[in-house]
Specification:
The structure holds two protein chains of two kinds. By secondary structure, chain A is mostly helical. Helix content of chain A is 75%, strand content 1%. Chain A has a domain at 101-309: MetI-like fold (Orthogonal Bundle). A two-stranded antiparallel ribbon of chain A has the order 1-2. Chain B has twelve helices and no strands. In chain B, helix 4 (78-114) crosses helix 10 (204-227), helix 4 (78-114) packs parallel to helix 12 and helix 6 (134-145) crosses helix 7 (149-177). Chain B has a single domain, classed as MetI-like fold. Classes of the chains: A mainly alpha, B mainly alpha.
Chain lengths: 350, 288
């Protein structure tokens, strides 16, 4: 009879194994897009490469070999970190660009998710408790606008009101561009360790930069998280409603427990479970909004790079962004699945 | 007493309409959609100016009676361009959704009906597609194919079909288990007829709901891709493109970006209200 811990390990291992077909499939799609539908050599040449050199490069990367051989070398290249050159970044190697720009996008996405959780869950709970009252209707409207408002338009409205509007009225305003003000950075140089400005400035005790970075990240993170915020609120609300109807809640009340304990100790713990899944899922929605949000707020991240790459037909950049984003989402879904089975004892590590 | 099929269907329709009356927001959604689609179809008749018409003397003018939404930086009338933009966007999105529904339904129903390895294969393929955010997948296909409206539609269709395939497959599997399929089979009716004449019509409600919601989502994605510079030419009368072109004037002439953005919002809101309401009305657990 296996111990529970061993069963958990076996479950995790099995889920990890399921990663393989999904990741392979992803790589196949990326391969088709980069090697089959378009000429892959374009990711490795500059305007100054001579035709003879182009042929050399084509042969060296096996682009003239049959498709299956090409796929093998494609996998090798991906694992080696040879993803081509980014034409929109003066032929900087794609992997170096990804590493350089990743922290900006990651920081933005993480703050967006935090906003979704910190605002969305309480809002969902209260909407469920005060069903059909004013707050419930407002949160429904919020969720509805989250899936009806174009992200770029929301960002522009925020910029207009919170930057231009406040500034014109001589009130304190939120900055509309970038991660941090150049003047602040020059006056208080930041020692970057991880590339996450909020984290690095806190750790090195650089409070002016921390404050400035925080003020810069509020608007873009809120805009980025807006669509997911509505989703989280709604799912928490319907999950709470479902749970509150259960028998064990009625019996808890019948026992004479104060309503507060009934809600927080019994209902919420169970209602949270689908919310974990939704937060994980909304990561995908959030990352999908990154190109547009980063463009609007001139945020120097992966999304901004991918967005301008489209205009420059910089295929290597867009495909790299897609590969990174999809891989992250797949991994996050795996983590969410495992967390879900840990949290819900009814799911017996099936 | 067993009612005839047609009589039963009529009863269900009447009950649906009754539920509809109790759901004012859904009615609002339907009205919005009908109004917008109508003015989009009538755009050539009601638009005061052409979509590419430029009045160079009237650049960046705020809203006036002669230009309801003002003019942009090349002198184009924003009201007319929004109407034509609606036309283009609705055409693109409906094309994408229709093809995705048909393609996805065919694949999904075959996989669900036949089961086994074909079904497994379809599940794996759709899993992969669904793990990539739609905008990012569409961007990848778009950048590889090159800029054109057709490629935009192609990229979006490839992004959209997997969800329908899974939906239909799920429905088919559920229906397959039901008794009436065995009964029909006992009559000796062939598989494909069972599939198309009996199973699919009973699966139509979720498809209807999802299609409605997806029409809104497709318009958002179309506008997003156009905003980023893909699909239509700069200066074209497409709602996302208009926002991108007018972005530099957001503080000095905010009407240039507010009108197209508001237009997108109104239409998507309509589809979302309608889809949500339909979902509640057609939910078999809430009926009766």
């Amino acid at each position: 009879m296996a111990l529970p811990k061993t069963r958990l390990l076996v479950y995790i291992l099995r889920r990890l194994l399921l990663l393989i077909p999904v990741l392979s499939g992803l790589l196949i799609i990326m391969f088709i897009l980069s090697n089959v539908v378009s000429d892959p050599v374009n990711a490795y040449i500059t305007v100054r490469t001579s035709p003879a050199e182009i042929e050399q490069i084509r042969h060296a990367h096996h682009f003239d070999a049959p498709v299956f051989v090409q796929f093998f070398y494609y996998l090798v290249d991906v694992l080696r970190g040879d993803w081509g050159l980014s034409t929109s970044l003066q032929y900087e190697p794609v992997t170096s660009a990804v590493v350089r720009l990743f922290p900006a996008t990651a920081e933005l996405a993480i703050v967006a998710i935090i906003i979704q959780i910190v605002l969305g869950i309480p809002l969902g709970v209260i909407s469920a408790l005060k069903k059909d009252k004013a707050l419930d209707h407002s949160s429904r409207l919020l969720a509805l606008s989250g899936s009806s408002l174009p992200v770029f338009w929301l960002g522009l409205i925020f910029q207009y009101v919170l930057f231009y509007g406040l500034k014109s009225a001589n009130l304190p305003y939120l900055p509309s561009e970038g991660r941090v003000s150049y003047s602040v950075l020059v006056a208080h140089p930041l020692h970057t360790i991880t590339g996450f400005y909020l984290f690095d400035s806190l750790i090195t005790g650089n409070l002016p930069v921390f404050q400035d970075a925080l003020v810069h990240i509020i608007m873009p993170a809120f805009v980025l998280g807006f669509a997911g915020l509505g989703l989280v609120t709604r799912i928490t609300r319907s999950s709470m409603l479902e749970v509150m109807r259960q028998d064990y809640i009625t019996s808890a009340r019948a026992k004479g427990l104060p309503e507060r304990i009934v809600v927080y100790k019994h209902a919420l713990k169970n209602a949270i479970i689908p919310t974990i899944t939704i937060v994980g899922l909304s990561f995908g929605v959030t990352l999908g909004g990154a190109p547009i949000t980063e463009t609007i707020f001139s945020w120097p991240g992966l999304g901004n790079w991918a967005a301008s790459a489209i205009l420059n037909a910089d295929r290597a950049a867009v495909l790299a962004f897609a590969l990174v984003a999809a891989t992250i989402i797949i991994l996050i879904n795996l983590v969410v699945d495992i967390l879900y089975s840990l949290a819900d004892p009814r799911v017996g590590y099936a | 007493m067993e009612l005839k099929l047609s009589q039963r269907r009529l009863q269900e329709l009447r009950y649906s309409l009754h539920l509809l009356r109790n759901s004012p927001l859904t009615v609002v959604g339907i009205v919005l959609v009908i109004v917008v689609v109508t003015i989009a179809l009538l755009a050539p008749l009601i638009a005061p100016y052409g979509p590419e018409q430029r009045i160079w003397t009237d650049k960046i003018a705020p809203p006036t009676p002669s230009h309801f939404f003002g003019t942009d930086d090349t002198g184009g009338d924003i009201f007319s361009r929004v109407l034509y933009g609606y036309r283009l966007d609705i055409a693109i999105s409906s094309g994408v959704v229709v093809v995705a529904v048909i393609f996805g339904s065919v694949l999904g129903s075959i996989a669900g009906f036949l089961g086994g390895r074909i079904d497994e294969g379809l599940m794996r393929v759709t899993d992969i597609f669904l793990s990539i955010p739609s905008l990012i997948l569409a961007m990848s296909i778009a950048v590889v194919l090159g800029r054109s409206v057709f490629n935009l539609e192609l990229a979006l269709t490839v992004t959209w079909w997997p969800a329908y395939a899974r939906l239909i497959r799920g429905q088919v599997i559920v229906e397959k288990q039901k008794l009436y399929v065995d009964a029909v089979r006992a009559y000796g009716i062939g598989s494909s007829r069972i599939l198309f004449k009996h199973i699919l019509p009973n699966s139509i409600y979720p498809i209807l709901v999802k299609t409605t919601l997806d029409l809104g989502a497709a318009i958002l994605t179309t506008a997003a891709l156009s905003f980023l510079g893909f699909g239509v030419e700069p200066g074209a009368a497409e709602l996302g493109r208009m926002v991108a072109d007018g972005r530099q004037f957001v503080f000095s002439a905010p009407w240039i970006v507010s009108a197209p953005g508001l237009a997108i919002f109104v239409l998507c809101l309509g589809f979302n209200l309608m889809g949500d309401g339909l979902r509640d009305i057609l939910d078999p657990r809430l009926r009766r």
